[in-house]
Amino acid sequence: MSASQLAFGSSLYASDCLPGCTHSAVCIARLIACSLINHKNKTKETNEGEAMTGFLLVWTSPSSFFRLPPFMAAAKLQCRVALSLHSHPFSRRVSSINPSMLPQTSPPLFLSSLTPPHLFLTSHRHFSSVNQRSAGFSKYWKRTKPFTAHLNNKDNDANPTEQSSGDVNLDSTAPVTTPNSKPTPTTTRHKKHSKTNSKKQQSSTSVEEAAQAKTSSSTKTKTKPKELLDASASTKPQPNKKTRKPTGKPKAIKTVKVSPDKQQQHKPMHKSKPFRQGSLKPLYPPTAKSVVVVESVTKAKVIQGYLGPMFEVLPSYGHVRDLAARSGSVRPDDDFSMVWEVPSPAWTHLKTIKVALNGAENLVLASDPDREGEAIAWHIIEMLQQQDALHQGVTVARVVFHEITEQSIKNALQAPREIDLNLVHAYLARRALDYLIGFNISPLLWRKLPGCQSAGRVQSAALSLICDREMEIDEFTPQEYWTIDVELYIMETGSSVNARLTHFDFNKLNQLSVRSHTEARDIEQKINVASFLVAGAKESKMRRNPPTPYITSTLQQDAANKLHFSSMYTMKLAQKLYEGVQLSDGKTTGLITYIRTDGLHISGEAVKEIHSLVIERYGQDFASDSPRKYFKKVKNAQEAHEAVRPTNVRMLPSMLANVLDEDSLKLYTLIWSRTVACQMEPATIEQIQVDIGNANGSITLRSACSGVGFLGYQIVYEDKEAGAIKNKESEVNDHNEAFGILKSLKPGDPFNLSEVKLKQHFTQPPPRYSEGTLVKKLEELGIGRPSTYASTLKVLQDRNYVTVKNRVLNPEFRGRMVSAFLSQHFTEVTDYSFTADMETELDNVSAGLTEWKGLLRDYWTRFSSYCSHAESVHIHQVEKMLEKTFGDFLFGSLPDDSRTCPSCLEGTLIFKYMLDIYGDDEDEETPQNNSVEEPKLLGVHPVSTEKVLLKNGPYGFYLQLGEDRKGYTPKRASVSHIKDVDNITLEDALELLRYPVTLGNHPKDGHPIILKLAKVGFAVRHRRTIASVPKNMKPDNVSLEKALELLSGDDVRRSGRPKRKPKVEEVVEAM
């Protein structure tokens, strides 16, 4: 027997449990070890001694010690036998044993019908199935790791007594000394224990007995044992094989280690970190092989070209795992533990990373510099640790960069850091919070509001904004008012001046002063008989400061207002510009900095480069004297990253005309112009205001005009050579003839009356939100974050809660019902201030100021009570609430308040989620309930004379050639990608209906190559291979040769179902 095993037995004996205790596996092993130590100097002639030696040699090995707990029932019997056989010498040697605890049954009665102990405790006897073997491994292996670490310690043989003080402990909550943690102070064990320790022993004993009984029960009934989930468990698809012959060492189900919070509180449940610890050294210039993990393939290709062969850059394809998409993935009753699910493709990507780590010394995690990026890096480390892919020599480092350029990447590698657990905790809190809200409210919506799909934390607040604005529009009552404009001409020059009536009868007029046409006509008559002259003039100058650089929200707003891009489309284009494009010289580089930001600052080097460019192109007068600094003034700004700007400001938009497609070029031009303008001098606006009155001053007309005195930053938007987009401000503020005329007038100059114009107006309701204005409102209120705006708007549209018509957001009635229900029963979810305050709390978690589980616990306490109350509400109560809320909107057009059915004149209209008739038993169709949107006739085809129709289907608008009739399949073309379908002409329709067009046959296989109209433009197709046609290329210019070139390029995709079906795997939850 080795010194390591003796030290192991000594450490068990020195533990705080009494040697006579027979209720736990720990005590069993402790007793057997002590018994063996007592007899180590005697000859091993008896079968019992051989059995004891074999038992300890087998069950104290690192590879098989985990088997002990599942056999607690059998081991208890073995322990009683050992005590009975060796009671006298054992009790003499061990002074603390209580003889009364020894079993009174004689050994012959125990051993008369029993197999020898070392044969009784076989390795697989009590595993009735593979699942139970795996369950036993997963459940108990982590708890026994301190034992194996003790046995494998090389210092045990040299000095076995140093390890006998109690370092080995199976309690999962006890601290353990690791190579990188502070040593835990040890205490001397005494024979007499306090009352507290006695209570703890009794509690521990009862728990272990319960676990023993449960294990025995599951073994006898051959049922799957109950799950034991850590705070962060993952699931992996496994073959659904119920039984198999146990061969070799039990194979473990791959489980992910617990969350960072658990890692800090329950260190014994993990191995000590296998990768290298300590201060991180610069990774560039390279001294050894490094594996760099980024999020996308495009980014990986670009960075690989910068770093060379010493670095292997691999993509993770986004998140490698996520919360399991089912109920119970976040468990508030289990300290908010989470169940993670790993998609099948992610295992392949992780395997690629694992293979690449062979022979590497560094693992560099270079995901995006935000919470999601930090979470991706954390998930990758957890999964690689699970697969034992991080050996002792691997150094794990986290690097961040805000632009994909060669210098930025190398600078980041020179300043590596560790994972920021505060950001990870903020991610976990946000993810858990959104999950709890969504998975608790959504089922209620399904039951209480049939047809409504889901609700979420940010999307519900955004939907409430849209629906509240719609309610204001419904309740708005327009008011009539009139304006009076007068055209005057100067007799000396013959020039005309337009002026508006501002004072009448010595009183200043406001917007609603003239309310009727009669009042306007009375004023007109008095103006016609009056003579006018210049009463006074006022000139002023105003400085208009340059705009701030773009952040995520303002970029989406400007793209929506100026380019008519949706938020999601804007982010898609910006992501491509950030990840990198191939330039005309063959080099690939990122064109803009990181796009998800709310910071307005720009690096000092970039400011100097902008200042230099402005002087070169526009002159010293247009460059700002000192660098302009901008600060965020909206709520909850983090400002962790730079503003969105070009990585190289000298890359003019005109240089990328043949590199980028049309929409990407427009977006880059916006970013370039705004970035250059933000560091220039303000524009000077000259304003002039002339008052014109009658003789006694009772009537006053006012004419005003403005012009640009100094262009300042606006010269950037006039730079056609750079390819800039002209700004509307510059168009309005141009010098014009009217400005010069007004400036030449002097007090007392007479005018002749030319014409009096009366105009009728009505006050307008508040406008509906566009995507740009809604993003601006969300930003002002502090709801959501830059990375969530686009996805929030997309979810609202995908759920059919909101539709986009004429570039504004119109709430559907389904969305309004959801918003009303949430406002009634979940006030906090739709409350703007609460949602904004929650964002602040999540930011505090990122800064380490708030404990994330405490935040979840506080919110869940209130939210669960809302769910319980809403669950008890009957569906009829919901209907009454909705009828009360929307009654005026639904039935306001009826002539009286009786709600009599306008069709049969007998029934009564009530609210039943759709308009229904109460009291009308006949199932008669009426024009009111049978109305559908009629197809729009655009014209007639000039050749076939078939009608060209614009129709609306379940997937959007489409064109159709000919009417539906039996035996005829009309040709159709989708126009869902066209934003303004109402303006489609017959010529447009004929052009779209002529596709698809066969360009010719492929020279290799003879199959046709087709030019067709896709969802977002045109594409060419050969069998299952599809390539998009660049947006700056007209479809008429696509020839067979050009199509072959596109199909052989990199931007191709496959369509259709693959020939071999993917393997169907059952998701087995980790134990």
UniProtKB/TrEMBL annotation:
<dbReference type="InterPro" id="IPR005733">
    <property type="entry name" value="TopoI_bac-type"/>
</dbReference>
<keyword id="KW-0479">Metal-binding</keyword>
<feature type="compositionally biased region" description="Low complexity">
    <location>
        <begin position="175"/>
        <end position="187"/>
    </location>
</feature>
<dbReference type="GO" id="GO:0003677">
    <property type="term" value="F:DNA binding"/>
</dbReference>
<comment type="similarity">
    <text>Belongs to the type IA topoisomerase family.</text>
</comment>
<dbReference type="InterPro" id="IPR013824">
    <property type="entry name" value="Topo_IA_cen_sub1"/>
</dbReference>
<dbReference type="InterPro" id="IPR025589">
    <property type="entry name" value="Toprim_C_rpt"/>
</dbReference>
<protein>
    <recommendedName>
        <fullName>DNA topoisomerase</fullName>
        <ecNumber>5.6.2.1</ecNumber>
    </recommendedName>
</protein>
<keyword id="KW-0238">DNA-binding</keyword>
<dbReference type="InterPro" id="IPR013825">
    <property type="entry name" value="Topo_IA_cen_sub2"/>
</dbReference>
<dbReference type="GO" id="GO:0003917">
    <property type="term" value="F:DNA topoisomerase type I (single strand cut, ATP-independent) activity"/>
</dbReference>
<feature type="compositionally biased region" description="Basic residues">
    <location>
        <begin position="239"/>
        <end position="254"/>
    </location>
</feature>
<dbReference type="GO" id="GO:0007059">
    <property type="term" value="P:chromosome segregation"/>
</dbReference>
<dbReference type="InterPro" id="IPR023406">
    <property type="entry name" value="Topo_IA_AS"/>
</dbReference>
<feature type="compositionally biased region" description="Basic residues">
    <location>
        <begin position="265"/>
        <end position="274"/>
    </location>
</feature>
<dbReference type="InterPro" id="IPR028612">
    <property type="entry name" value="Topoisom_1_IA"/>
</dbReference>
<dbReference type="Pfam" id="PF01751">
    <property type="entry name" value="Toprim"/>
</dbReference>
<dbReference type="InterPro" id="IPR013497">
    <property type="entry name" value="Topo_IA_cen"/>
</dbReference>
<feature type="region of interest" description="Disordered">
    <location>
        <begin position="1052"/>
        <end position="1071"/>
    </location>
</feature>
<dbReference type="InterPro" id="IPR006171">
    <property type="entry name" value="TOPRIM_dom"/>
</dbReference>
<keyword id="KW-0460">Magnesium</keyword>
<feature type="domain" description="Toprim">
    <location>
        <begin position="289"/>
        <end position="404"/>
    </location>
</feature>
<feature type="compositionally biased region" description="Basic residues">
    <location>
        <begin position="188"/>
        <end position="198"/>
    </location>
</feature>
<feature type="domain" description="Topo IA-type catalytic">
    <location>
        <begin position="420"/>
        <end position="867"/>
    </location>
</feature>
<feature type="compositionally biased region" description="Polar residues">
    <location>
        <begin position="158"/>
        <end position="174"/>
    </location>
</feature>
<keyword id="KW-0799">Topoisomerase</keyword>
<dbReference type="InterPro" id="IPR000380">
    <property type="entry name" value="Topo_IA"/>
</dbReference>
<dbReference type="InterPro" id="IPR003601">
    <property type="entry name" value="Topo_IA_2"/>
</dbReference>
<dbReference type="Pfam" id="PF01131">
    <property type="entry name" value="Topoisom_bac"/>
</dbReference>
<dbReference type="InterPro" id="IPR003602">
    <property type="entry name" value="Topo_IA_DNA-bd_dom"/>
</dbReference>
<dbReference type="InterPro" id="IPR034149">
    <property type="entry name" value="TOPRIM_TopoI"/>
</dbReference>
<dbReference type="Pfam" id="PF13368">
    <property type="entry name" value="Toprim_C_rpt"/>
</dbReference>
<keyword id="KW-0413">Isomerase</keyword>
<feature type="region of interest" description="Disordered">
    <location>
        <begin position="149"/>
        <end position="282"/>
    </location>
</feature>
<dbReference type="GO" id="GO:0046872">
    <property type="term" value="F:metal ion binding"/>
</dbReference>
<dbReference type="GO" id="GO:0006265">
    <property type="term" value="P:DNA topological change"/>
</dbReference>
<dbReference type="InterPro" id="IPR023405">
    <property type="entry name" value="Topo_IA_core_domain"/>
</dbReference>
<dbReference type="InterPro" id="IPR013826">
    <property type="entry name" value="Topo_IA_cen_sub3"/>
</dbReference>
